[in-house]
């Protein structure tokens, strides 16, 4: 990822939430007719990496709160996705400039349309 910053995770969460909302209005993000309120949260995990030189893993969670639910009810996670570094050869890390963060492993579970939006 180009110019990725772990200190800007809240900003990334807001941007992806807005983008998904725009796609939802087009009928692309979730099933047509579904009125779920979606929210995105980014988190990083310093201890979730293969080697000390690997970048920190990033978890993206898309959650929803269906309409007419109790205020105290927790949001339901509808799409979790992990971006992780899994290097067997750290030579690649030495070649990349500091402007790039390489997290080649992408694990996810959820709607295909959300996966396409997050992946791009």
Q: How does this structure look, described?
A:
The structure is a single chain. The protein is of the alpha+beta class. It has 3 helices and 4 strands. A 4-stranded antiparallel sheet has the order 1-2-3-4. The N and C termini lie close together (11 Å).
Brief digest:
By secondary structure, the protein is α+β, with helices and mostly antiparallel strands. 25% of the residues lie in helices and 26% in strands.
The helix-strand sequence is HEEEHEH
Number of strands: 4
Strand order of the largest sheet: 1-2-3-4
Distance between the termini: 11 Å
* Share of residues in helices: 25-40%
Q: Per DSSP, what share of the residues sits in E-state strands of 2 or more residues?
A: 25-35%
| Shape, per Cα inertia axes | elongated
Average of per-residue pLDDT values = 78
Rg, rounded, reads: 16 Å
- What is the helix tally? 3
What can be said about the biggest beta sheet?
4 strands, antiparallel
Structural class: alpha+beta
- The unreliable regions are 31-35
Defining key terms:
3 helices, 120 residues, alpha+beta, 4 strands, elongated
